[in-house]
Amino acid sequence: MAFTATVGTATPYYGQPQNGGTFTNFAGGTTTGTQVKTGEGVLYKVVINSPTAAGTITMYDGTSTSGSPMGVITVPSSPVPVSLEYNMYFKTGLFVVVASQTEDVTFIYK
To answer: With contact defined as beta carbons under 8 Å apart, do 89 and 42 qualify?
Structure first.
């Protein structure tokens, strides 16, 4: 099963903090990993829209799984949609592995 990646830029509205964030949504997982952004940046949030029980999401500062691990999210056995705030800097790039083929995850970064 192939995954669908959507990349976009959030449109600010009056009163919204101006972080100029970009988002990438993965619907259907990316089990081998995907380069979300090359170069330095900030990972603001990870939004798990349609969680899969016991699924994992791994983020790396790098261009592959050999990069420095930034975090591993393990979805609980009774999943609910959740937004996780990171505000974490990365230097080389943001590389992600979404281990479940049915996970729907959005990464918000700059």
So the answer is: yes
Picking from 78, 103, 75, 83, the residue whose alpha carbon sits closest to that of residue 43 is: 83
Q: Please tell me what DSSP assigns to residue 11.
A: P
Q: pTM of the prediction?
A: 0.78
Q: Tens digits of per-residue pLDDT, 69-88?
A: 999 998 887 888 889 999 99
Residue type, 3: F
Instruction: Determine the Cα–Cα distance for residues 103 and 34; give it in Å rounded to an integer.
Output: 14
Q: How would CATH label the architecture of 21-109?
A: Sandwich (2.60)
Cα dihedral 93, 30, 59, 65 sign: negative
Give residue-wise pLDDT tens across range 2-27.
Answer: 444 455 554 444 554 555 568 888 77
Q: Is 51 exposed, middle or buried (0-12, 13-18, 19+ CB in 10 A)?
A: buried
